[in-house]
Structure formats: C-alpha cells, structure tokens
C-alpha cells in the first residue's frame, strides 16, 4: 500500500510563473489536506478537500492560490504568479476519516523555490 | 493563532539520555498527536493520546496529557542518534494545528 505521493519533490519557478503541486492520497483515503511550512516553522494549514469538494480553505491566501481534488486523479495545489514569499515546503496529507481526529498520513512534500 | 506550542525550541543531548519535550495548547481537544519530521522530509505520525487518557506508551515513547493544564509531554527514553529530528504536537479540528516544534539533536 503506497503512502501519500507528492510530485514534484522540488520545483523551481521564476517570479510570475505558475506552480502546480500534485498529491495522490493513500489508497482508500478520500480526505486531503494541504499545509505549508516556512523554514524553521511548523506546518500551517491551507485547505481541506474531499473528492470534488473544498471543505475548508480558511488557511489559503485569497489570491493566486487554488486547490482541487477531482473525481479522478490527484489533488492539485495551484499557485499563480508566484512571488519569492511563496518559497516553502508544501505538504499534503490524507486521512480516511471525516476529520483529522485519528491522525493524518503525510507525503514527502514539494519544496518550491521562487527565484 | 497557533494551538500548540512546543517547549523547548531546541534540545541537544547525548545518545542514551532521555529527551523530554512539552506542548501547551489553548482550547479543548478530543486528542493530541505527536509527529516527527526528519530534516527535509515529511511528517511521521508517532502517537495519539485521547482526552480521556493520561498516559500512553509506544516503544521508547511515553506521552502524557494533562487536560487541566492544557499540556502534554513527549518523553523519548534511551535516545539514539536516529532520533535527531523536529518533533511537533498537533491538535485536530477539521485539520491539524501544529506548533513550531522542538528540534532534537542526539549526539553519538
């Protein structure tokens, strides 16, 4: 049973470009969470999705950021017109349950560098 | 605002010693979870303690929870160099709310 998969592992973008981060949850998990981690910081929640639905996007910046989890395929976190401040590690997690109550399974992360 | 705050921010010990990390939180919880993050890697779920539990063991890990003080501690006994990592406590809402972590360094 493969764990949570994220790709790419490293992504370099110039200012103004778009970044697309992908996350495939564990088999049987229909709940996906995206977190952002700045250097020397803990993880900050961004968005929580179920298949085809955004449940909670309270942690996501209002502009330039969007997320989706289609019926088929991975969840995508999309950052348009990236800026240097978007440089961070982005982690995806999945869980089988309605909420994060019993723990989440994390992917290895995508490290985004904006030059 | 952050729900969990770990203390200390950094801890350096010798192999074989015990390491204790503390976590304080602000609101009521159903459970509290501890995670480990090796440098440059994702998080690994270590242990979950429910609000009606006071202590829980898993291998060399011992977690305590004091809901009256809104605090938890993680004890790693007989530490090894491989335990070097950052440790985070997290409390669940629909998502997990993480503290900034304790960076543990175990010297061989």
**Mean pLDDT of chain A, nearest integer?**
90
Helix/strand-derived category of chain B reads mainly beta
**Distinct helical segment count of chain A:** 0
Secondary-structure element order of chain B, N to C: EEEEEEEEEEE
* Rg calculated over all Cα atoms of chain B: 13 Å
Strand content of chain B: over 45%
Low-pLDDT windows of residues of chain B: none
Largest interface: A-B, 27 and 24 residues
Helix content of chain B: under 10%
| Helix and strand run of chain A | EEEEEEEEEEE
Describe this structure in words.
The complex is a heterodimer of chains A (115) and B (108). Chain A has 115 residues and is mostly beta strands. Chain A has strands at residues 5-7, 10-13, 19-24, 31-37, 43-50, 53-56, 65-68, 75-79, 88-95, 105-106, 110-114. In chain A, the strands form two sheets. In chain A, strands 2, 4, 5, 6, 9, 10 and 11 form a seven-stranded mixed β-sheet that branches. A four-stranded antiparallel β-sheet of chain A has the order 1-3-8-7, with no helix packed on it. Chain B has 108 residues and is mainly β. Chain B has no helices and eleven strands. Chain B has strands at residues 5-7, 10-14, 19-24, 31-37, 43-50, 55-58, 61-66, 71-76, 85-92, 96-98, 102-107. In chain B, strands 2, 4, 5, 9, 10 and 11 form a six-stranded mixed β-sheet that branches. In chain B, strands 1-3-8-7-6 form a five-stranded antiparallel β-sheet, with no helix packed on it. The mean pLDDT of chain B is 89. The chains are: A mainly beta (115), B mainly beta (108). Chain A binds chain B through residues 4, 33, 35, 40-45, 48, 55-56, 59, 91, 93, 99-109, 111, and chain B through 2, 4, 30-31, 33, 35, 40-45, 48, 88, 92-101.
List keywords for this structure.
heterodimer; A: 115 residues; mainly beta; 7-stranded mixed sheet; globular; B: 108 residues; 5-stranded antiparallel sheet; 11 strands; 57% strand
């Amino acid at each position: 049973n493969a764990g949570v998969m994220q790709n790419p592992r490293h992504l370099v973008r110039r200012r103004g470009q778009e970044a697309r981060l992908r996350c495939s949850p564990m088999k049987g998990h229909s709940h996906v969470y995206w977190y952002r981690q700045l250097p020397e910081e803990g993880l900050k929640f961004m968005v929580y999705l179920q298949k085809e639905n955004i449940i909670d996007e309270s942690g996501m910046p209002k502009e330039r950021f969007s997320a989706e989890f289609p019926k088929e395929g991975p969840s995508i976190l999309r950052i348009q017109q990236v800026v240097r401040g978007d440089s961070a590690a982005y982690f995806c997690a999945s869980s089988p349950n309605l909420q994060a109550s019993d723990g989440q399974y994390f992917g290895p992360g995508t490290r985004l560098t904006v030059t | 605002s952050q729900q969990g705050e770990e203390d200390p921010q950094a801890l350096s010990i010798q192999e074989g010693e015990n390491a204790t990390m503390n976590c304080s939180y602000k609101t009521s919880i159903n459970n509290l979870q501890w995670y480990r993050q090796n440098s440059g890697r994702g998080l690994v779920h270590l242990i979950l303690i429910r609000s009606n539990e006071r202590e829980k063991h898993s291998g060399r890990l011992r977690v305590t929870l004091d809901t009256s003080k809104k605090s938890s501690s993680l004890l790693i006994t007989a530490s090894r160099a491989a335990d070097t990592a950052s440790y985070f406590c997290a409390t669940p809402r629909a998502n997990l709310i993480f503290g900034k972590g304790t960076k543990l360094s175990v010297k061989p």
